[in-house]
Amino acid sequence: MNRHQIEFITPLFSRGAYDDLPEIRPASIRGQLHWWFRLLGGSYADEKAIFGGVHGGATASRLVVRVADLPQRPSPPVFPPTLPHKPAGNDPRNGPNAPRCAFPAGTRFTLVVAERLGGLADAHHKLADRTTQAWLLAGSLGLRTTRGGGAIHWS
C-alpha cells in the first residue's frame, strides 16, 4: 500500500455528482491513472490485469484507489476565476473568466493506492507504480487542467 500526501498548488475546479460543490473522488484519480497508463504505452492486456475490465470476460481490478483526510469544503465557498489571465467581459458569470466553486490552492488530502485480490505480479506492480509516479509528477485533477487548474504537489 502506498500513501501520498497531495497538496493542490492551484485551485481545484471539480463538480460534485449532486451539488455544484467541489469534491475529490477516487474515481477521478483512477481515471487519471488509466489515462497515464495508456500514455506511457501500457498494453490492453496489462491494463486489464491491473485495472480490470469487462471485454473478453470480466476481471476485477487488483488496484484500489482511495482518498483519505479529505478537506472540509470551504465555508463560505471559494469562487476563483477559471481563467484569471482573461478579462471577465460584461457578465462575470458567463465570460471566459467565469468564477467557479473550487477547493483553494493549499488544500491537502491523502491518496492511498493499494493492491487487492492477491496483489499484482511483479511486472504489473512496476507498471502501476510507474503510472502513479507519472501522474504525481506531471498530472493534475479536475476542470481547467490544461490551463493549470488542479495542479498538485506531493510528498
What is the residue-averaged pLDDT? Answer: 86
Structural class: alpha+beta
Q: Count of helical segments?
A: 3
Cα radius of gyration in angstroms? 17 Å
Which stretches of 5+ consecutive residues score pLDDT under 50? none
Distance between the termini: 15 Å
Q: Biggest sheet: strands side by side, in what order?
A: 2-3-1-4
**Sheet bearing the most strands, described?**
4 strands, antiparallel
Helical percent range?
A: 25-40%
Q: How do the helices and strands follow one another from N- to C-terminus?
A: EHHEEHE
Shape: elongated
- Give the amount of beta strand, in percent: 15-25%
**Total E-strand runs:** 4
Describe, in plain words, how this protein is organized in 3D.
Strands 2-3-1-4 form a four-stranded antiparallel β-sheet, with helices on one face. It is elongated. Helices cover 25% and strands 15% of the residues. It is of the alpha+beta class and 155 residues long. The longest helix has 17 residues, at 122-138. It is built from three helices and four strands. It has helices spanning 26-39, 44-51, 122-138; strands at residues 2-8, 63-68, 108-115, 152-154.
